Amino acid sequence: MAESRTQQLGFICGLDAALRVVGGKWKPLILHFLYSESKRYGELKRCVTGVSDKMLSQQLKDLESHGVVSRTDHNEIPPRVDYALTPLGRSLAETLVPLCEWGEQHQEMIASSV
């Protein structure tokens, strides 16, 4: 039996490939907050409550390496760096909208079960 293209690329399935890009606690939140508009690092840090500077920087670099987030350094003093979704990132963030809506609808039940 021939291997599927997904398996040839080292993934179990398409979901495995998607989770490689968006897996973890912080990446979906970063995508969510960049979905509406680009943000400076400090703005993004305030939106993603609880993330450390080290983790946010690491997650942004990882998303950038996957071509999902773009980083624009304006070469100004004080430093100004903007983060935005690429077209690939926008398409990925759009897939998270139904998940966000599901979470909104079931927040109370989820909160009571933890």
Structural features, described:
- With 114 residues, this protein is mainly alpha-helical.
- It has one domain: Winged helix-like DNA-binding domain superfamily/Winged helix DNA-binding domain (Arc Repressor Mutant, subunit A, Orthogonal Bundle).
- It contains seven helices and three strands, in the order αααβααββαα.
- It has helices spanning 5-8, 14-22, 27-35, 41-47, 53-65, 87-105, 107-113; strands spanning 39-40, 69-73, 81-85.
- The protein has a three-stranded antiparallel beta sheet with strand order 1-3-2.
- Strand 2 and strand 3 (81-85) form a beta hairpin.
- The longest helix has 19 residues, at 87-105.
- It is globular, with a radius of gyration of 16 Å.
- The termini are far apart.
- Residues 13-111 form the HTH hxlR-type domain.
- It comes from Enhygromyxa salina.
- GO terms for molecular function: DNA binding.
- Keywords: DNA-binding, Transcription, Transcription regulation.
- This is Putative HTH-type transcriptional regulator YtcD.
What class do helices, strands and sheet pairing give?
Answer: mainly alpha
Strand order of the largest sheet: 1-3-2
Here the CATH topology equals Arc Repressor Mutant, subunit A
**SS elements, strand count:** 3
What would CATH call the architecture?
Orthogonal Bundle
Question: In percent terms, what proportion of residues is strand?
Answer: 5-15%
Helical content class? 55-70%
Order of helices and strands: HHHEHHEEHH
**How big is the Rg?**
16 Å
Q: What's the level 1 CATH class? A: Mainly Alpha
Structurally, how many domains make up the residues? 1
Shape: globular
**Which superfamily, in CATH terms, is the homologous superfamily?**
Winged helix-like DNA-binding domain superfamily/Winged helix DNA-binding domain
Number of helices: 7
If you average the pLDDT, what whole number results?
A: 91
- Biggest sheet layout: 3 strands, antiparallel
Distance from N terminus to C terminus (CA atoms, Å) equals 44 Å
Domain HTH hxlR-type: 13-111
Keywords: DNA-binding, Transcription, Transcription regulation
Protein name: Putative HTH-type transcriptional regulator YtcD
GO molecular function: DNA binding
